Amino acid sequence: MDAQTTKDRLTRKAWLDHGLRILARQGAAALKVGELAAGLNVSRGSFYWHFKDIGEFRLQLLERWQERTTDQVLEQTDASTTGAARLTHLMKLAFNEDRSLDRSIRAMASTDATVAAMVASVDARRIAYMANVLTEAGVESRRALSRAEFLYWAYIGQSAVMDPRHVSMTEDDIDDLSALFAR
């Protein structure tokens, strides 16, 4: 396939995936139509073929972020494990992922009410999921929500730690913590 054919077949998904990479690496200020198009080696017209404007693009970026970092992760976790192992699996996925995109989305949320609402919705869904996992693992429902919230706060806070000695956990550490919270 030649370069022109590739350009002609550029999809909305390709634009969104490119936007998510740029957002993770450079932040929201880099989400400019001209720069995005140049990064894909296409014209600005290609962007406007797929999106009405930058606002629509940003909204769809948020939806794609939710799909990739929440919907797919929860589906994968449900499909691959059961019981207490589900919490351990989820924690291993969460605590060992690159969270630069999440940091950029949360930075956008600090100045944009629409983004803040989407992030709050994702946070609530993730916490509810963890509380459900804890309940299924045998934790009393009245304790499951507070434990899920605490784990989520740790997850969010971990991405803000700057000392590289304290930004990751071993699988054994995660196993140990998972067992502590699932009691």
Number of domains: 2
Mean pLDDT across residues: 89
Q: What is the strand tally?
A: 0
SS-derived structural category? mainly alpha
Number of helices: 10
User: Stretches where pLDDT falls below 50 for ≥5 residues?
Assistant: 1-7
- What percentage of the residues does DSSP assign to strands (E)? under 5%
- Radius of gyration (CA) equals 19 Å
Distance between the termini: 56 Å
Label this structure with key terms.
single chain; Arc Repressor Mutant, subunit A; 10 helices; 2 domains
Question: What topology does this entry show?
Answer:
Layout: H1 3-8, H2 12-26, H3 33-40, H4 44-50, H5 54-80, H6 84-95, H7 100-109, H8 113-136, H9 141-158, H10 171-181
Helix pairs in contact: 2-5, 2-7, 5-6, 5-8, 6-10, 7-8, 8-9
